[in-house]
Specification:
Layout lengths: L4 E9 L5 H10 L4 E9 L4 E10 L1 H12 L4 E7 L3
Antiparallel strand pairs: 1-3, 1-4, 2-3
């Protein structure tokens, strides 16, 4: 069994047209998601989503890479040291 890491992906969504595809990607990786929190921020016209995951580095990178390629979506990931 491959070693896994805990990570949190911080996602800023500035393009509402990307939401359906973003949700499809998160659904694709649902088995690694520990939890998800979304905060709409209408004052600035964006949403903030945090996704906690437990998976091998390569899987986390694949997910965040797909998310980061969506237009109007920015993703930054913080990994646990363990």
């Amino acid at each position: 069994m491959e070693d896994t890491r805990i990570a949190v992906a911080a996602i800023i969504v500035e393009n509402k047209d990307a939401v359906a595809e973003l949700n499809a990607i998160l659904h694709e990786y649902g088995s690694i998601i520990i939890g998800r929190m979304g905060i709409p921020y209408p004052k600035k016209g964006l949403s903030i989503i945090s996704v906690a995951v437990d998976a091998p580095n390569e899987t986390i990178s694949a997910m965040t890479g797909k998310l980061g390629r969506l237009p109007g979506v920015t993703v930054k990931t913080a990994y646990s040291k363990a």
